[in-house]
Amino acid sequence: xxxxxxxxxxxxxxxxxxxxxxxxxxxxxxxxxxxxxxxxxxxxxxxxxxxxxxxxxxxxxxxxxxxxxxxxxxxxxxxxxxxxxxxxxxxxxxxxxxxxxxxxxxxxxxxxxxxxxxxxxxxxxxxxxxxxxxxxxxxxxxxxxxxxxxxxxxxxxxxxxxxxxxxxxxxxxxxxxxxxxxxxxxxxxxxxxxxxxxxxxxxxxx
Length: 206
Hints:
The protein has helices at residues 16-27, 38-41, 47-53, 68-75, 89-95, 110-118, 123-136, 143-151, 168-181; strands at residues 4-7, 32-36, 59-64, 81-83, 100-101, 158-160, 201-203. It is an alpha/beta fold. It has two domains: 1-102, Aldolase class I (TIM Barrel); 108-206, no CATH class. The strands form two sheets. A five-stranded parallel β-sheet has the order 1-2-3-4-5, with helices on one face. The protein has a two-stranded parallel sheet with strand order 6-7. α7 runs antiparallel to α9. The radius of gyration is 19 Å and the shape is globular. Keywords: Lyase, Schiff base.
């Protein structure tokens, strides 16, 4: 599937009519997945707008971050929805009709996330990954994710301002999570390690 994942305009927010006009302009170009994440954009895309836009054949679906009640509302009307909230993904998929999750944690544990989404309801697995979800979202994405990938040896430990790595006590927490969940579930081939502050490079200008 090829589609553009498209958020609504942030900072310069608009009216509901403006949202409809904006998305209709984008939909005239090609397939679109609407991305509703009001914690980032400061404006919710309400169901009244999505229902209008759903009349376009180029609307593939919605990535919804408001919650599972909203997802259930859309799926009951035949609108395709992915959740954008890892912690809600199991119930969104198996209780609310979402087709899956566009996930942060899948960058670390792709196999477990695939199992969670496509191999049936699994409360035990969901409980297993919840601590990882909580750890990943203690600071805005992608701070914890990039810290984790660096400690797994998957990426270089380089951050670009305004992002900085998590402090050392949270880096230790991640290593403990990996050891408890099993290193084999995580990406990369190197042993997980606690990086020191001096191991990270923070770039201000480049």
